Amino acid sequence: MPRPPPSQLDEISARTLGHYATHAESFWEGTRDHDVTENHRALISALPGAPPRRILDLGCGPGRDLAALRDAGETPVGLDGCVEFVEMARAYAGCQVIEQNFLELELPPESFEGIFANASLFHVPGAQLAHVLGVVFKALVPGGVLFCSNPRAMSADAEGWNGERYGCYLTIESWTNVIARAGFVLESQYLRPSGRAPSAQPWLAMVWRKPRS
What is the pLDDT of residue 5? Predict the structure, then answer.
């Protein structure tokens, strides 16, 4: 799978975020009613301790999942690199939302019981995935949980442009390997949408835990 050289990372970030900025309103209208309660439950049921727990919504978009996690009694914090999404999420969910580019991710250590990365990590180029996952790992408390959902490659890893959005499409094995190398322990996984044959389930949802010691 070809990896972009460092000189292309700025272009990857600018073009991908620019696409979301240009289509922020239509993206919101097209995704606000998507039912991802299965993913919310998968994260919340695995979190350590009792609510409210501090959860980072990594790539929060316009705030749909922030609001759902807030309504579930948690204390969510959003993060997105698209300024338009940051403003929309703050207005919609009324939560703290950090404006930050994934490729320049900086998070305080051991600050979250959970990190919810729904349809976001796949935008990180393969060459940067290990670094980003390392930052995420350090940001979780011991025993904390990473939930991620990403489109999966059905046969072979692929990476590149889909229109103006950059994507890293990995097989189940490759997603498992790259996240495990960051130090996480896999607890569960499932394919979405539910109720379909595997060939019609392009999304891979995974629950990972940071070991307590």
Answer: 66
Residue 19 contacts residue 85 (beta carbons within 8 Å): no
Listed residue (86, 73, 67) closest to 20, CA to CA: 86
Q: Is 3 within 8 Å of 128 (Cβ atoms)?
A: no
First-to-final CA distance of the chain: 34
pTM, two decimal places: 0.95
- Residues 129, 158 contacting (CB under 8 angstroms): no
Q: Identity (one letter) of the amino acid at 191? A: L
Rounded Cα–Cα distance for residues 181 and 84 (Å):
34
Q: Is the pLDDT of residue 173 over 80?
A: yes
Rounded-to-integer distance, Cα 150 and Cα 58, Å: 13
Calpha distance 203→205 (Å, rounded): 6
d(CA 181, CA 132): 12
Q: What is the mean pLDDT of the chain?
A: 96
pLDDT tier, 160 (very low <50, low <70, confident <90, very high otherwise): very high
Q: What is the mean pLDDT of residues 169-176?
A: 98
d(CA 177, CA 156): 14
For the chain, domains (ranges, CATH) are 6-209 (3.40.50.150)
Residues across the chain: 213
